[in-house]
């Protein structure tokens, strides 16, 4: 191969200077002119390539990581458990409106995929909202969720929450509420998540001897739902004594209403209607889904014989959660009642529902429901004072009217999609 250059023919004439190529196609491609152009183009291409690589490296897709998996200055990432449910979805809506980053975890056993889709349509921007289909009773799944996401705080709503059902299926309630809360707490501790807003209930108080209920009222729950919630509270409080975690426990009363702008509402599963909230039963009766309303218990020691409850609008309730999140501090525990401070009887509630719906609802009066208590209403002065929170939506008929508008426009709830994509 060393002789190969000598085998190449040359056609250079004697008059053609050595080292200069023959012109081709009538054009003069001199090396002296071509080299600077080629070098310039290569340099420009190199600069553009380096710039593109720099931009790509700053994007989540380049590294294969999601924005949800890393902490960002000025962005608070909140895990909302049970965010497909009635209260959880309204909380997620408020957080998203307030520019929080939100991850919803729900197994849809009680929640609605329709609520998730409504939120996704309202907040389609990347990095705002993600939904993870998972069971919080699965320790491996819970740990993986915390491992793959950078949470700053947890709002723990996920729970079965029907007093009557809890008396029929007590073990389910202890598993779903107490055990699952323990798994969440363990995952938070393992992955350094330092803020917990816990959704508790006035059911932990049982039947207090005097009203109104304050945060120091003794807790003596009388049904498995209230007992399971109190056990979860005790676990959280015991852990917090040896931790720098910021903890807020909100014990709230009977929730009614829906988003004032009609974006979300309450849509319990049909098979759970008999255990559901009184507002849902009133609306079902008004819509003709059920023949009438069944009021359980008329012999309680109250003014009209029916139970007295403190009805809190869901918009006020989620406002209390957001204020609690804002005020949460390391190594501090806050416990607050969330209510209006005013009790209303079931008969009063039914009359307000009739006026809100414009329907003369048939009412059947039945025996007491197991595990119910006669009178419960709050003293909200502590949360008023320490979190600057006050219930604003206190007109019972107006709250029911807002909820009724959503029910009328969604007679089948969020509907059941033929294919559920999660």
From TrEMBL:
Stretches for region Disordered: 1-28
Swiss-Prot/TrEMBL cofactor(s): NAD(+)
GO BP terms in the entry: galactose metabolic process
Residue ranges of domain NAD(P)-binding in the record: 79-394
Keywords: Isomerase, NAD
Molecular function, one GO term: UDP-glucose 4-epimerase activity
Protein name: UDP-arabinose 4-epimerase 2 isoform X1
Family: Belongs to the NAD(P)-dependent epimerase/dehydratase family.
InterPro entries attached to this UniProt entry: NAD(P)-bd_dom, NAD(P)-bd_dom_sf, UDP_G4E
UniProt cross-references to Pfam families, sorted A to Z: GDP_Man_Dehyd
Protein's organism: Canna indica
Domain of life: Eukaryota
């Amino acid at each position: 191969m060393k002789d190969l250059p000598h085998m190449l023919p040359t056609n250079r004439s004697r008059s053609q200077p050595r080292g200069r190529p023959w012109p081709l196609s009538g054009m003069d491609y001199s090396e002296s002119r071509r080299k600077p152009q080629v070098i310039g183009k290569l340099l420009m291409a190199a600069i553009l390539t380096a710039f593109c690589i720099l931009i790509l490296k700053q994007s989540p897709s380049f590294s294969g990581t999601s924005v949800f998996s890393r902490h960002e200055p000025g962005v608070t990432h909140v895990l909302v458990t049970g965010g497909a449910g009635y209260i959880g979805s309204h909380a997620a809506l408020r957080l998203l409106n307030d520019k929080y980053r939100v991850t919803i975890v729900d197994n849809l056993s009680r929640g609605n995929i329709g609520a998730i889709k409504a939120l996704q349509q309202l907040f389609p921007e990347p990095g705002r909202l993600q939904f993870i289909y998972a069971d919080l009773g699965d320790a491996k799944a819970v740990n993986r969720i915390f491992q793959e996401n950078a949470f700053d705080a947890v709002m723990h709503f996920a729970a079965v929450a029907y007093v009557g059902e809890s008396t029929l299926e007590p073990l389910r309630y202890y598993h779903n509420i107490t055990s699952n809360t323990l798994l969440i707490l363990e995952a938070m501790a393992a992955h350094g998540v330092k803020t917990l807003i816990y959704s508790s209930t006035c059911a932990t108080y049982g039947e207090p001897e005097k009203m109104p209920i304050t945060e120091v009222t003794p807790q003596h729950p009388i049904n498995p739902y209230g007992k399971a919630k109190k056990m979860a509270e005790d676990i959280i409080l015991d852990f917090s004594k040896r931790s720098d975690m910021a903890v807020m426990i909100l014990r709230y009363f009977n929730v009614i209403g829906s988003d004032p702008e009609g974006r979300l509402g309450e849509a319990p599963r049909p098979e759970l209607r008999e255990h559901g909230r009184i507002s849902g039963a009133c609306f079902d009766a008004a819509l003709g889904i059920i023949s009438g309303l069944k009021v359980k218990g008329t012999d309680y020691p109250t003014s009209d014989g029916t139970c007295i409850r403190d009805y809190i609008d869901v918009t006020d309730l989620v406002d209390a959660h957001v204020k609690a999140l804002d005020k949460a501090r390391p190594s501090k525990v806050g416990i607050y009642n969330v209510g209006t401070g005013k009790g209303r009887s079931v008969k009063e509630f039914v009359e307000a529902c009739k006026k809100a719906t414009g329907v003369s609802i048939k009412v059947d009066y039945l025996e007491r429901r197991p595990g119910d208590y006669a009178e419960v209403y709050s003293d909200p002065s502590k949360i008023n004072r320490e979190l600057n929170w006050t219930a604003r939506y206190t007109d019972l008929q107006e709250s029911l009217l807002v909820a009724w508008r959503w029910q009328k426009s969604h007679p089948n709830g969020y509907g059941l999609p033929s294919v559920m994509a999660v």
